[in-house]
Specification:
There is one protein chain. The protein is mainly β and 143 residues long. Helices cover 12% and strands 31% of the residues. The protein has two helices and ten strands. It has helices at 62-66, 131-142; strands at 11-14, 28-33, 38-42, 50-52, 57-59, 80-83, 95-99, 103-108, 116-120, 124-126. The strands form two sheets. The chain has a five-stranded antiparallel β-sheet with strand order 4-3-2-1-5, with no helix packed on it. It has a five-stranded antiparallel β-sheet with strand order 9-8-7-6-10, with no helix packed on it. The protein is elongated, with a radius of gyration of 20 Å.
Length: 143
């Protein structure tokens, strides 16, 4: 494990030996050094900041830094999403967000069975609904 000293703005990863599934392969930026830990910000925008001891931090490898880091849109409780990739969930089905974080609880929009799924935030895409277009198409159907 590393005993490196990092500066604000350095890009780091959590040592894969000790990282949990949610933290593996993610790049963080050092926000500031605290008395014992470092405060880190995830560059992918998923989840809250993290505090980690210097012993578990490593400089981010060049291959991870070379990949473009795509920040994901923030989700709010009650927001509408689609599942891009996950188990046996149809990617055309709309879901509503029940709880937010690195893992998101979602339920099928209009579903009556009370079932919900917990999926990684990175597997979801935010859906925006154009109300004017929806109203116009509803008028066409009625006519």
């Amino acid at each position: 494990m590393s005993k490196n000293i990092f500066q604000d703005g350095d890009r780091v990863i959590i040592d894969p030996v000790v990282a949990n599934e949610d933290m593996t392969g993610r790049v963080f930026e050092v926000v500031r050094r605290l008395k014992v830990n470092y405060e880190l910000k995830p560059l992918d925008g998923v989840g809250p900041g993290v505090r980690a001891q210097p012993e578990v931090l490593l400089p981010a490898p060049a291959d991870l830094l070379a990949k473009p880091i795509i920040a994901v849109a923030a989700l709010s409780t009650g927001g509408v999403v689609r599942v891009k990739r996950a188990r046996d969930i149809d990617p055309e089905t709309l879901f509503v967000v029940l709880a937010n974080g690195a893992k998101v609880k979602i339920a099928e929009l209009g579903g009556a069975d009370g079932r919900y799924w917990t999926v990684p935030r990175t597997a979801l895409e935010k859906v925006t609904i154009d109300l004017a277009a929806a109203a116009a198409s509803a008028q066409v159907v009625e006519a």
